[in-house]
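can u do me a favor
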């Protein structure tokens, strides 16, 4: 059968967990903030710490920089320049082919 000491240990563990949960959620250990600061009694907003504006600006700036740089990956002067070069090369090749064709036709008529 099941050992009585084992069952007692399991029951005591469960009751300890339940007691801890009750204390943590409903008791003296409950806090409104994860960092433990107290809310303003007048209902005002919390003052920023001295490091917060710089950190928020850094994160916002890095996100914006990533966004702009990833846009530049697809919309940049190199891409437009390469498209222009391809267009001009195609036009030049078309004209050369046309010139060769007309030269052949001209020589056939001689």
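np, heres the sequence
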């Amino acid at each position: 059968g099941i050992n009585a000491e084992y069952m007692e240990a399991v029951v005591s563990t469960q009751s300890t967990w339940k007691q801890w949960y009750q204390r943590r959620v409903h008791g003296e250990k409950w806090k409104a903030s994860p960092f433990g600061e107290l809310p303003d009694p007048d209902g005002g907003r919390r003052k920023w710490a001295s490091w917060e504006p710089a950190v928020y600006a850094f994160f916002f700036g890095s996100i914006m920089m990533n966004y702009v740089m990833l846009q530049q990956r697809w919309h940049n002067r190199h891409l437009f320049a390469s498209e222009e070069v391809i267009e001009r090369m195609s036009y030049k090749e078309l004209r050369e082919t046309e010139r060769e064709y007309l030269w052949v036709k001209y020589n056939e008529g001689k």
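The chain is about 70% helix and 0% strand. hope that helps!!
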